[in-house]
Design a protein that fits this description.
Length: 171
């Protein structure tokens, strides 16, 4: 619980920690990633990495690896975009909060969906996103200083709270 004398969490920290909780739903035991689409401080959609609807989860059925990367799942960022589309939610101009920076295919989806800001908790694999983001006007915000990391197993709510700096902890 937050001491009344401690400042409230800023919006980026708040939404990133929600993305971390969303990652606890991930079904790939190699890495748990959560994503959140936000516009005007309102959560539009969430997503986590998981199997195609109706297919077995890779943490149960095994992984399909290509170049050391499991391709059996749909990534958290793509699932957040897909959930918005399935529900008719407009995401152009939104921010995406993701516990790991997007891979190249997800970055391309994010860019073409009109998302203008990517806030991530840790760097993941592909630095091509940095130059292209600058070229197309997408802001990248690295929150790795918060210590938020996508990991397996997914964190409990107590672990999420413990990961917040003391001045960022909220009730």
């Amino acid at each position: 619980m937050r001491n009344v004398n401690e400042p409230r969490a800023d919006w980026d920290s708040y939404f990133m920690h929600i993305a971390l909780v969303v990652s606890s739903r991930a079904t790939c035991d190699r890495k748990h990633v959560g994503a959140l689409l936000v516009r005007d401080r309102i959560i539009l959609s969430t997503g986590y990495n998981g199997s195609i609807r109706g297919m077995p989860h890779c943490d149960e059925a095994g992984h399909i690896l290509e170049n050391g990367h499991c391709v059996a799942t749909i990534h958290a960022e793509a699932n957040a975009i897909l959930q918005a589309a399935r529900n008719g939610v407009r995401i152009e101009g939104a921010d995406i909060y993701t516990t790991a920076s997007p891979c190249w295919p997800c970055f391309k989806l994010i860019a073409n969906a009109g998302i203008k800001r990517i806030v991530y908790g840790e760097f993941y694999r592909d630095d091509r996103i940095f130059d292209v983001a600058r070229q197309v006007g997408i802001a990248l915000v690295d929150l790795s200083a918060l210590g938020v990391q996508s990991r397996t197993p997914a964190p409990s709510a107590d672990e999420v709270a413990a990961a917040l700096p003391a001045e960022k902890q909220t009730a």
